């Protein structure tokens, strides 16, 4: 059955120009043309398009394109290796998120007045304490996540015990791939309420995102299995 670009576009919810772009990029299998130069799409092209779109949702556009290129090169093992890499990355993100959750619970509930807790640090000292660059602390400050006091005479930054706790949280959330805008409500909730409820909500949202991605990966794998069978 011959299909028009508009037929593929409607089935995938995209424009006909995107269909042509996918064909030119090798995301779709080679497309024969009529004597007048029009592309002749078939059901295999439609299945390739739906497979790519599902892969892009679950993995990424670049990974999806790599998988489709491998399949069209008759290198299914390479395509499956890329799928495996995506699942391994997701697993690592889940593991990292759990570690961050456990550590942040401790940080959020720590006693700021404990005898062994530093009460004040300069920017270089705090950077060394966290294992980050001083430029990272300045970026966090510019984003409104930190607000250290300034020495009236030297203008040096002075980070209090609360600032140190917040900086530790920011560092760990950044390691968990949280954006700065996503971190702000966590810190605000902790500062305003003195509880880690906002922290737990942020972790829950991230878990939900990973679950959504895992489901999308499963759907993509089903599409790929049908396409290569």
Range of strand content: under 5%
The run of helices and strands is HHHHHEHHEEHHH
Tell me the Rg in angstroms.
25 Å
Unreliably modeled segments: none
- Tell me the span between the first and last alpha carbons: 19 Å
What does the model show?
The chain has 229 residues and is mainly α. It contains 10 helices and 3 strands. It has a 3-stranded antiparallel sheet. The longest helix has 33 residues, at 76-108.
Short description:
The protein has about 230 residues and is mostly helical. The chain is about 70% helix and about 5% strand. Strand 2 (about 150) and strand 3 (about 155-160) form a beta hairpin.
List the helices and strands and how they pair.
Elements lengths: L4 H8 L3 H9 L18 H16 L2 H12 L3 H33 L11 E2 L1 H8 L3 H9 L6 E2 L6 E4 H15 L4 H14 L3 H32 L1
Helix pairs in contact: 1-2, 3-4, 3-10, 4-5, 5-8, 5-10, 9-10
């Amino acid at each position: 059955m011959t299909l028009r670009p508009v037929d593929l576009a409607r089935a995938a919810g995209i424009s006909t120009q995107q269909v042509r772009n996918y064909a030119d990029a090798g995301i779709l299998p080679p497309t024969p043309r009529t004597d007048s130069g029009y592309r002749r799409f078939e059901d295999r092209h439609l299945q390739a398009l739906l497979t790519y779109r599902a892969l892009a949702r679950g993995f990424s556009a670049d990974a999806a394109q790599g998988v489709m290129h491998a399949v069209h090169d008759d290198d299914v093992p390479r395509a499956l290796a890329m799928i495996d890499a995506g699942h391994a990355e997701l697993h690592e993100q889940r593991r990292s998120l759990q570690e961050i959750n456990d550590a942040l619970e401790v940080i959020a509930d720590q006693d700021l007045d404990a005898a062994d807790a530093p009460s004040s640090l300069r920017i270089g000292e705090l950077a060394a304490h966290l294992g980050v660059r001083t430029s990272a602390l300045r970026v966090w400050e510019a984003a409104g996540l930190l607000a250290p006091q300034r020495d009236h005479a030297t203008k040096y930054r002075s980070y209090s015990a609360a600032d140190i706790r917040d900086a530790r949280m920011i560092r760990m959330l950044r390691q968990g791939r949280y954006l700065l805008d996503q971190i702000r409500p966590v810190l605000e909730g902790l500062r305003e309420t003195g509880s880690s409820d906002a922290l737990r909500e942020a972790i829950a949202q991230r878990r939900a995102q990973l679950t959504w991605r895992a489901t999308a990966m499963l759907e993509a794998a089903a599409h790929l299995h049908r396409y290569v069978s």
